[in-house]
Amino acid sequence: MLKNLLDGKSVLSGKRNRRFIVFEGIDGGGGETQSKLLFNFFKKKKISVEKLTYPDYQGSIGKLIHQYLHKKYEFPSEIQFLLYFTDFLKDKEKIKKWQKERKTIISDRYFTSTLAYQGQKGFPLKTALKIAKIFELPKPDLIIYLKISPETSIKRKFKEKKSLDRHEADKEFLTKLAKFYEKLITKQVFSRWAVVDGEKPIKEVFKEIKSGIKNW
């Protein structure tokens, strides 16, 4: 599916000479790993590239999000949405600047994570998209969804760290979240979506991603 989206007259054709790519998925999907691999791949090809990661735990907003995820605070879905949205919005001008400079942008998660996570908790999708439009939040050119099962998600996260956050340890939540992502993918919400089998070994997953972008 990824290759089909990137072939031919894609919005990501080389003529446009700029790309904003987002990696999405439930926890443990491999977004952090694959976004780093793609970033380094572009670097080796001498392509001007920048990288973003959300939540931005180095910033004050991200630190508050981290505390929420580890149950030091409780917020309703509306506050959660605004908290995450502000984390993306703070980088709006930086992203627009990079786009004007025709740089490639790789992001490990973005606004689409909030559409899924907070949407699954009851925050209206139409409202979220309207807010993004009002604030002119930059849209990605492509969202790569790394698809894995909730069982794989929990297994990977436990292997990665001993203490899981409120989302990583909740199989029921992850199951509902995966279904919500499927709705976003089916309707191609906010941007073009492509699905990659994240259950495969890291090298195989990245090989598929590279295959899809080989003509850039």
Record the SSE blueprint:
Blueprint: H1 2-6, E1 19-24, H2 31-44, E2 49-53, H3 60-69, H4 77-89, H5 92-100, E3 104-108, H6 111-120, H7 125-134, E4 142-147, H8 150-160, H9 171-187, E5 192-197, H10 202-212
Parallel strand pairs: 1-3, 1-4, 2-3, 4-5
Helix pairs in contact: 2-10, 3-4, 4-6, 6-9, 8-9
Quick summary of this structure?
By secondary structure, the chain is an alpha/beta fold. It has helices spanning 2-6, 31-44, 60-69, 77-89, 92-100, 111-120, 125-134, 150-160, 171-187, 202-212, and strands at 19-24, 49-53, 104-108, 142-147, 192-197.
Give me the count of strands.
5
CATH superfamily: P-loop containing nucleotide triphosphate hydrolases
Helix and strand succession?
Answer: HEHEHHHEHHEHHEH
Mean pLDDT comes to 90
Helix content estimate: 40-55%
Strand content: 5-15%
> Which term fits the overall shape?
globular
By CATH, the architecture is named 3-Layer(aba) Sandwich
Unreliable parts: 7-16
Radius of gyration: 17 Å
How does the major sheet shape up? Answer: 5 strands, parallel
* Classification by helices and strands: alpha/beta
N→C terminal distance: 17 Å
Count of DSSP H/I helices:
10
What top-tier CATH class fits best?
Answer: Alpha Beta
Q: Order of strands side by side in the largest beta sheet?
A: 2-3-1-4-5
Number of domains: 1
And the CATH topology? Rossmann fold
